Amino acid sequence: MPRIALATYDPGAEPSHDTDLPVLVRALGDAGAEAESRYWDDPAVDWGGYDLVVIRSTWDYSWRAAEFAAWVERAGALTRLANPVPVVRWNTDKRYLGELAAAGVPTVDTRYVAPGEPAVLPADREFVIKPTSGAGARYAARYTPAERDTALRQLARMHAEGLTAMVQPYLPGIDVNGERALQFFGGRLLHASRKAAVLSPGTPYDADKVAHPGLEPWQPTDAEIAVAEKALAAVPGTSGLLYARVDLVDGDDGEPRLMELELVEPNLFLWLHPGSLPPVTEAILRAAGPA
Fold first, then answer.
1. 212-245 residue pLDDT tens
2. Whole-structure pTM over 0.70, yes or no?
3. I need a surface site. Which of 63, 118, 154, 256 has the fewest CB within 10 A?
4. Please, where are the H alpha helices in 79-126?
5. What is the C-alpha separation between 255 and 105, in angstroms, rounded?
């Protein structure tokens, strides 16, 4: 009977946003595992007492990046961690997009502006600013060239907090075809979803956003699957990859572009795809078996 921990965040007095978590814990238990959800930052947890720790919904980590990185290293030294430590370390900094672009993966054009570096903002189209470490559209905003001064104030605020910014063109195809999320588990395509645009014009960068507006099932195209597989093949150390979510949008040419590759704590949307629960359960059990 393998012992499996699903790492999540502490919601405090609020209900957890991970509605899939109790369903997955129950499914693993029904399949013969000893499974439980544990808060990643709980100092009382003996992570070495588990055969496998699956990072599931540590959704406050981007606010506490250094603390989370230390926990990943510590837990990964005590037991098997999914995804593996090097993959998590690489994926928590969105500068990985530059590496994937250099490897030939079609990505959204991205410039990085670290603290102390001058900002070069597009003067002929809408653009987006967001941090290289973030989740749920935190510190993300959409601007027109006429809003340059507001965008510069956002950059100054982010730099004051030690954050490196990403500057990307806003691709209008998002407003037409949305953003598609292809989810892989156990090395196979699990399911896909589509959501509407997250960033509305005029929404302040420090305002709360709806992370997955209008989410619905999606049948991925051959072109989308090809880009997703190319992105995953370019990830360093993919031999131990248990799960992945590949977020795609349409470029100006109508072809899919990688917007983000989520290898840390992607929402699985099992509530939207209940048929995916059995293969997810089976893949976790396989990962918890003998090395």
1. 888 999 999 999 999 999 999 999 876 779 999 9
2. yes
3. 118
4. 85-91, 96-102
5. 12
